[in-house]
Amino acid sequence: MTEIWDLYKNGRWEVPFLTFSIYFFVAASLILYLVIVASRNSKIKKERLTKEYSVTIDKILSAVIFENVPFSKIKEDKNFLVLFDTSFFRAVLTNSLINLHKNYEGVYAEKLEQFYKDSGLIKDSFKKLKSLRWEVKCKGITELAEFNIKEAFDLIVAFSKARKKTLKIVAINACIKLEGTQSIHYLVEHPDPIDDWMQLNIIGAFKKHDIGDTIGIEHLLESQNTTVITLGLKLIKELKLSQKVPHVAQLAAQTTNTVIKYEAQSILQTLTA
To answer: 210: alpha, beta or left, given left = phi > 0 and alpha = psi -120 to 50?
Structure first.
């Protein structure tokens, strides 16, 4: 410390400081350059592998859908087992499965769901729920919901109370897909505010999964959470559930919240016009 102080008092610190700064800048620039190159090479490699894997995956899934080939038969191919042992191949395979499942219904969709289970890809999705990264959890939740894994419902419900808004929305939407209006019970007891963006996403999920007019939506109007009540009113309006008019009228008559009363009265006018 004494030597450094002497350098400072004598004004001889500029040259060592500038020298150190130059070396530090050069080293930092070199490291940053290497990181960028490595990242780009990794991206190029993944794009190349994705194209190569897609050819194999298309053949496999085509055999599963149209030729009724079970996974037990597919895994007899040693080349497939070598590929399947890599996490990136399984990720590409899962994405391909999801894309196909979105475009197929009935028996074909059921075959893809069975392949997802038999292949063990379902285990990869459950593992993602344990990740510390919220975006990985979202991916796992989306995969499980897409393939209608109802046993994952209780785990996914827990994420509907997460702090991260995106994770919360993905979890709520997944619950709606898996259990329909059975998930309303958890929405009624939802403790946190549900802002406009989240409400739009939830309404979109009800529309997307064709929940329609089923028993239970009116229970949202009984929540202690005013934003959940607002969500219930918007759902009734968006889905045009005129048979829920008595519940809306009761809310309008009993609530002391002027904003909710106004919204309920407005919806009554719309549905009874």
So the answer is: left
